[in-house]
Amino acid sequence: MGVVEEEADEAQFWLELVLERSLVDEARTASLLDEARQLVAITVSSIRTARKVVRPIPHSAFRIPH
């Protein structure tokens, strides 16, 4: 999930950069930037949720030393 966050955040960064430099039409890029922001928010929320939940793996074939 961390890689997904980093990649979405980087996409957002580049979209913002090209918009600031007026290299692309803002109307065409606005939806992509909005989607990148949403992906970052969803991913961050998922990471936070995953860190809160601690569940043992029942009947796992793998033995994890404690």
Structure report:
The chain has about 70 residues and is mainly alpha-helical. It has one domain (about 1-50). Helix content is about 70%, strand content about 0%. The protein contains 2 helices and no strands. α1 packs antiparallel against α2 (about 25-50). It is rod-shaped. The model has no long low-confidence stretch (mean pLDDT about 85).
> Largest sheet, if any?
none
Rg, alpha carbons: 18 Å
Shape: rod-shaped
End-to-end span in angstroms?
25 Å
User: Low-confidence segments, ≥5 residues, pLDDT <50?
Assistant: none
Order of helices and strands: HH
Mean pLDDT: 85
Number of domains: 1
- Helix count? 2
Helix/strand structural class:
mainly alpha
Helix percent reads: 55-70%
Instruction: Find the count of extended strands (DSSP E, 2+ residues).
Output: 0
